[in-house]
Amino acid sequence: MTGKIIFIRLLSSIGKAFWFFSILLNSGFSFGQESEIVERYVGLDSLLNEKSFFGNHHTGFVLFDLDSQRVLYEKNSHLNFIPASTTKLLTFYATIIVLKDSLPVFRYVENNGEITLWGTGFPSWKYKDLPQPKILEFLGKYKSIKFSDANWKDEAFGYGWQWDDYYYSYSSEKSPFPVYGNFVTYSNQKRTPISNIPYFNKVSINRSKETKHVERSFHNNDFYFNPNTYTASRSELPFITSPEVFVKLAEVQINIPVGLSKDILPESHKVLRGGTLRPIWTEMLQESDNFLAEQLLLMVSDDRFLELNTERAIDFIQKTYLRDLPDKPQWVDGSGLSRHNLITPRSMITLLVKLEKALPRTQIMQLLPQGGVNGTLKNNYKAKSPYIFAKTGTISNNLSLIGYIKTDSGHVHAFAFMNNNYLNKSAEIRREMEKVMVYIKEKF
Which of 19, 283, 284, 403 sits a CA distance of 20 to 30 A from 171? Predict the structure, then answer.
């Protein structure tokens, strides 16, 4: 009995309430076993407590045993954190539940050889190396094509996005039917910018601004460069979207004139479907693609309400499939670009548990970035075999990691590691986080 008393006092002294107290006290553990377990948790606490590196900023952490469904360790699990791109896990879950593994490309009606289209938010057309549905083959048989954005009930930018991100490709605008991911790429060919989109080939010269890249005006699609200082091999810039711009870009692809319509989507319409969501999930999660995340959330809205409205999609998911989270998130966009997003670490753990009920764990782990192998974790958490499978989230002064850790003992635990409001460089935060995760890998 003496060993058990010492065990309780040790746990009490580090100020933590571990869920395994009663299990150990009633399971006949020997004093030696108890001492080893105490040492394990005291060691973890020393890496995360207020006297550690993580004591000088807002840190939340949960380690969760998926087999026993018990919390092994927690710190500030009830506090809200800015999740940054780990918000994409909410979007991922929403698409699994609503869209499952199906891609609606657009909605349409036919009339005497004419077709009218309404976008679904489908993001892949001419974007990166994602599989392409047979849009051109399908539309080529019509003599007249019209496009309507009457189902668009959203804004091009998300709530709380930073205004000065407008010329970065990670902040492309949302739209009903994107082409090229809603950004243009200029390659430097003999100090002359050449566009991948002919519509944006015209680039003005501006010698008054010393810039290495092609840049875009704030209010319109005027692109410019300074030939005296232009050295960037590649410039990626979002363009301002509109129905008129879509029509111009679509006409080049389809080689058929496209007109504009304000027709409302009728109940009796058809849907062109194409491919699977998995390549999009992989790109969104591994490369943390903001554009795909935003468009996928619009597709959730399209599926449920036949309109494109991010706020309505989020409200629906929260009131139906996420109503049992420990703490209600403040969730405002699909990507995590907004600092208005807030969620607790323990709600993130519950989300991971929910994901496992919707999709096998092995598939989720394959879709997530793997430490030292791919995506946003390619250069971190390196080991002989991957042990971290997790979504990263980074914006200025905020860094989070949510996912799975595979320990040397063969256990797979879920974890949520969230850091906000630090003044250190992100690389330093990552190094210290890795020390914690290596300790768990070896000791748990």
Answer: 403
Residues 31 and 72 in one domain: no
pLDDT band at 102 (very low <50, low <70, confident <90, very high): confident
Q: How many domains does the chain have?
A: 3
In a shared domain, residues 266 and 307: no
48 and 31 co-located in one domain: no
Closest CA to 349 of 83, 84, 100: 83
Q: Which residues contact 39 (CB under 8 A, 6 or more apart)?
A: none
Distance CA 426, CA 229 (A): 30
Q: What is the pLDDT of residue 241?
A: 98
Question: Among residues 309, 314, 320, which one has the least CA distance to residue 154?
Answer: 309
Query: Per residue in 256-280, pLDDT tens?
Result: 999 999 999 999 999 999 889 999 9
Confidence band for 30, pLDDT divided at 50, 70 and 90:
low
Report if residue 10 sits inside a domain. yes
Torsion angle, alpha carbons of 297, 298, 304, 306, to 10:
180
The predicted model scores a pTM of 0.92
The band of 10, judged by pLDDT with boundaries at 50, 70 and 90, is very low
CA-closest candidate to residue 337, choices 182, 215, 173, 178: 173
Residue 97, domain member (yes or no): no
b/e map 138-174, b = 16+ CB within 10 Å: bbeebeebbbbbebbbbebbbeebeeeebbebebbbb
Residue 295 lies in a domain: no
Which residues neighbour 320 within 8 Å (Cβ) at sequence distance 6 or greater? none
Q: Which residue range is the domain that position 17 belongs to?
A: 1-40
Q: What does the block give as tokens for 248?
A: 């111009």
Q: How confident is the model at residue 297 (pLDDT cuts 50, 70, 90)?
A: very high
| Domain edge (last residue) among 256, 275, 294 | 275
* pLDDT exceeds cutoff 60 at 28: no
Same domain, 316 and 404: yes
Q: How far apart are CA 420 and CA 394, in angstroms?
A: 10
My answer on whether 17 and 63 are in the same domain is no
Q: Are 119 and 214 in the same domain?
A: yes
Residues 57 and 130 both lie in one domain: no
Tell whether 173 is covered by a domain: yes
Instruction: Select from 221, 6, 266, 226 the least CA-distant residue to 118.
Output: 266
**Contact by Cβ (8 Å): 60, 82:** no
Q: What CA dihedral angle connects 297, 302, 308 and 311, to 10 degrees?
A: -50
State the residue for tokens 């849907």: 271
Give the whole-angstrom CA distance, residue 161 versus residue 332. 10
